[in-house]
Amino acid sequence: MTGGKGLAALALALAIAGCGGPDADSNGAGAPQSAPVVMAVTGARVRVAPIVRRIRMLGVTAAIRQVSLRAPSAGRVVGFDLQVGDRVARGEVVAHIISREVEAAQNGLAVARRLDPVSAGALSAAVARHSAGPGVAVVATAGGIVSERMVSSGQLVNDMDPLATLIDPRDIYVEAQVPANEMGAIRAGMAAQVTSPVAPGEVFAARVSALAPNLAATGATEPVWLEFTGARRIAQANAPVEAALTLTAAESATVIPRAALFEDAATHVHYVFVAGADGRAHRTPVKVGIVEDGEAQALAGVAPGETVITSGGYALSDGLRVTLAQDSR
After folding, report:
1. Which residue in 73, 105, 131, 226 has the most C-beta neighbors within 10 A?
2. In this structure, are 272 and 155 located in the same domain?
3. For residue 63, what are the contacts with CB-CB under 8 A and spacing of at least 6?
4. 124 and 144 share a domain?
């Protein structure tokens, strides 16, 4: 019995020691304190800058009017040296057509000269009277740039066969495809910028000239037509292009990164977390304007010079201690 009482006393003493001993107060003042939670975040300064909302559309160039150079008669094309990209003036002679009858007579004359040189003289005079000149001239009825060439010099053609197609660069326009849900924001006369792989690094000024008169019931995109407004324009038809259409713009907007912007799923109110001078994150509602290219316009809620937190996502909370690992200025 004595041994059992001794073991019980020893166990009680060890329990008291494990709880901090008799010197520990009832409030646990002697217990070690845990360090406060501090989240390392990145931030960016709110700044004043221009911001523009654009719609980007893919499309191709097309010609309002094309001129087809055609053979004025059947025969063989001679002197046809036009290449794609060559400029042709109205009234210019671009080739000649030698009729097959004249060509046959000339070939027959060559045979006659070998067989009967004496009597071939009279035949030569007759052929010369009926085949004077280089042939029937092919005359351009309008000026333009060669966009397509269908035949080569020496080729046989029929009457009215197409030889080449001309377009006037002033007739080139852009047919672009815009998402159907953006059609309501587009108006004729809106400014646009056009780029194309056929002119790397160049930006062409344009504007909306017309919208599709009828919308497709199930179409994901709808056509919009743009006309060039500057001195420089794309001269080729069927060239792939990208058009950026300016919807709204603000020259001196209060701008924040989109990475700093959140939306309350229940109320659809936007907010940011501002890194305060007290080392804490402060949830701040903001009113949003233009949103474009990774940036957003803050119409109210934050001021230029404040730092908004751009990392941490939904792990952030109002009043959370933070330390800025990076401050993008």
Report:
1. 226
2. no
3. 147, 167, 168, 171, 172, 173, 237
4. no
Q: What is the pLDDT of residue 9?
A: 43
CA-CA distance, 55 to 118, in Å (whole number)? Answer: 81
Asked whether residue 59 falls in the same domain as residue 191, the answer is: yes
Domain count, the chain: 4
Counting every residue, how long is the chain? 329
pLDDT in tens, 79-114: 999 998 899 999 999 999 887 766 655 566 566 566
Task: Tell me, rounded to whole angstroms, the distance of Cα 326 from its chain centroid.
Answer: 33
pLDDT for 120 beyond 70: no
CB 43 within 8 A of CB 325: no
> Where does a domain end: 250, 277, 304?
250
Kindly state whether residues 205 and 235 are assigned to the same domain. yes
**270 within a domain of the structure (yes/no):** yes
Residue with tokens 């931030």: 43
Is residue 34 in a domain? no
SS3 of the chain: helix, strand, coil, percent, to 5: 20, 45, 40
Find the CATH number of the domain harbouring 163. Answer: 2.40.50.100
The alpha carbon of 58 is separated from its chain's Cα centroid by a whole number of angstroms, namely 6
Task: Indicate whether 199 belongs to any domain.
Answer: yes
Decide the pairing of beta strands 295-300 and 240-257.
antiparallel
When pLDDT is cut at 50, 70 and 90, the band that residue 15 belongs to is very low
Query: Global pTM?
Result: 0.56
CA 288 to CA 72: how far, in whole Å?
66
Task: At 177, list the tokens.
Answer: 């495809």
Q: Tell whether 215 is covered by a domain.
A: yes
Residue 51 near residue 295 (C-beta atoms within 8 A): yes
Burial of residue 195 (number of CB atoms within 10 Å: 0-12, 13-18, 19+): middle
Residue 72's domain comprises 66-96+140-167
